Amino acid sequence: MILQADAGGAVPISAGDTAWLLVSTALVLLMTPALGFFYGGLVRSKNMLNTLMMSFASLGVVTVAWAAIGFSLAFAPGNAWLGGAGHAFLVGVGVEGGAWGPTPHLLYAAYQGSFAIITAALISGAVVERMRFGPYLSFIFLWSIAVYAPVARWVWGGGWLGTLGALDFAGGTVVHINAAVAAVVAALVVGSRRDYGRAALLPHNVSFVLLGTGLLWFGWFGFNGGSALAANGTAALAFVNTLLAPAATLVCWMLLDAFRERNITAVGAATGIVVGLVGITPAAGFVSPASAMALGALVAFPSYFAILHRPRTRLDDSLDVFAAHGLGGITGALLVGVFAEKAWGGKEGLLFGNPGQLWTQAVAVVASAAYSALATWLLLKLISLVTPLRRPDHEEARGLDLVQHGEEAYTRGEGAVLVQPR
Amino acid sequence: MKLIIAIIRSERLNEVLEALYRAEVRGLTISPVRGHGGEVEQVETYRGTRVKVGLQDKMRLEIGVSEPFVEATVNAILESARTGEVGDGKVFVLPVESVYRIRTGERDEAAVTPQAPGAPV
After folding, report:
1. Which among A322, A365, A316, A374 has a CA at the least distance from the CA of A183?
2. pLDDT in tens, chain A (422 residues)
3. Which residues contact B92 (CB under 8 A, 6 or more apart)?
4. Which residues between 203 and 222 in chain A have a beta carbon less than 8 angstroms from any beta carbon of chain B?
5. Disulfide check for B19: which of A230, A276, B7, B80 has CB 3.0–4.6 Å away?
6. H/E element holding B4?
7. Closest listed residue to residue A144, CA positions, set A110, A106, A182
8. Is residue B4 a contact partner of residue B93, using CB atoms and an 8 Å limit?
9. Are A312 and B51 in contact (CB < 8 Å)?
10. Residue A56 phi/psi, 5° resolution?
């Protein structure tokens, strides 16, 4: 998904490429509600609506931020660090093809926007069940502009990491590492849930977790397959790798569960699939199908053991955003440097005689993680100067659905008396 | 008159209802409850978190009966709810001061004696 330097002149529209990108945009958009259900199933029932809303609200807030300035900062003409304001409010974004390929510029902006939306929503998994909704909305609005857009610029918008040769097919660094590091920082700044480490905080509906996972996988074909920005062989490779890698991760995860826990758990299977999807994201269009399966199997291990260990620490990254998306993304981004092959559309990696690629990948990982950590911390501190980031303890105990939204996810009509408006 | 309260295993509910039906006990109320009867605790694992589920799902039956039905009702429950494992539950038999049938205002014995559907009011 690297944006080449200006191709010069109008590029004719390809019907096939445009059709696939239209479909892919819708597929990626579906991932955000899917994430809501994945996260929602993992929280307690009294916070279900709040958790869903943290994802759904991103569809509004981040889309507006992206159209207003985010897309411009990431992809408008500018320098290696940041785009200019030339495409603010999508000014000058038409329906002609260009450097991104023979597809309408506007569609490219929407496709990229769908990535920004889900990246911001991913962070919510670390702050569910206690963060106030208003500050959360301000945070993702600002974060998508101040953190997502610049990192997208560096890697895909003709920025310095892309120029350096870092490979990130569909967003291992831009989306997953970026969001996961922000999630850890957010969990630290907002603080743990009051019951964390004292009471068993159980998923209230594992069926929703699996439903969300299924829809995420479905949407991910647009995420990775669409990142070819064309309906061609690379899209097919990325698509098939998006099937193979998570399959290998799922098998690995179930075996780990079977040997370590005696039971193959459903939450584990769902987590394994997501980790596999995250892992293949930076590699999808650069590695052979066999390498994709090897990558899928390997990516299971760091995340699996991190998830076992994390609840014993003081870090209340409530839904393990870092273990799944951070470690999955880092492992995937580094393994691109190992498994990438020129014959399959990438550059040669470590296994094919180019150890330097692994170094380039590491630079991209560290740079995006460091920037995301620093900028996220600053943004949250800034917001906390204006307004508190979390609800008071007694309100947290009642559940955010009630105190934050004035609704419950699972209402029972009994005892509800109609209040007539006067 | 007695009020019989039985706490039984949820998975034995159908057997108990069938046994009560055969014993011609007609009126009853059930509610899902949770409790602990000394049985082995169930262990569940969610990601890295392992929890012991201290309270098990049980069913609570409330049956108001006239004196001649007390023993038959208790026996029906004892035989149908029993698995032989710890956690089968309890049957409590409580005295009742008075009972009214809401529909007719009948009280006591008459109120807990079943009426055929369509019987004259």
Report:
1. A322
2. 555 545 456 789 999 999 999 999 999 999 999 999 999 999 999 999 999 999 999 999 999 999 999 999 999 999 999 999 999 999 999 999 999 999 999 999 999 999 999 999 999 999 999 999 999 999 999 999 999 999 999 999 999 999 999 999 999 999 999 999 999 999 999 999 999 988 889 999 999 999 999 999 999 999 999 999 999 999 999 999 999 999 999 999 999 999 988 899 999 999 999 999 999 999 999 999 999 999 999 999 999 999 999 998 999 999 999 999 999 999 999 999 999 999 998 888 899 989 999 999 999 999 999 999 999 999 999 999 999 999 999 999 999 999 999 999 998 887 888 888 77
3. B4, B5, B6
4. 203
5. B80
6. strand B2-9
7. A182
8. yes
9. no
10. -60, -40
Nearest to A307 among B44, B47, B51 (CB): B47
B114: tokens are 């079943």
Contact present, A123 and A58 (Cβ < 8 Å): no
Instruction: Please tell me which of the candidates A202, A203, A311 has its beta carbon nearest to residue B48.
Output: A311
- Cβ within 8 Å of B, A 183-202: 200-202
Would you say A362 and A172 are in contact if contact means Cβ atoms under 8 Å apart?
no
Residues in contact with B48: Cβ distance below 8 Å, sequence separation at least 6, in sequence order: A307, A308, A309, A310, A311, A312
Note whether A228 and A234 are within 8 A (CB).
yes
A267 to B51: CB separation less than 8 angstroms, yes or no? no
Helical (H) or strand (E) element with B59:
strand B56-65
Say if CB A183 and CB A123 are below 8 A apart. yes
Distance between CA atoms of A228 and A55, rounded to whole angstroms?
Answer: 26
B98 interface with A at CB cutoff 8 Å: no
- Please tell me the total number of residues recorded for chain B in this structure: 121
The answer to whether residues A405 and A211 touch, using CB atoms and an 8 Å cutoff, is no
Cβ atoms < 10 Å from Cβ of A4: 11
What is d(CA A245, CA A381) in angstroms, rounded to the nearest whole number?
Answer: 38
The rounded distance, in Å, linking the Cα atoms of A170 and A284 is 7
Length of chain A: 422
ipTM above 0.90, yes or no: no
Q: Are A75 and A83 in contact (CB under 8 A)?
A: yes
User: Within the 222-281 window of chain A, which residues sit less than 8 Å (CB to CB) from chain B?
Assistant: 261, 263, 265, 267-268, 271
Question: CA A241 to CA A336: how far, in whole Å?
Answer: 13
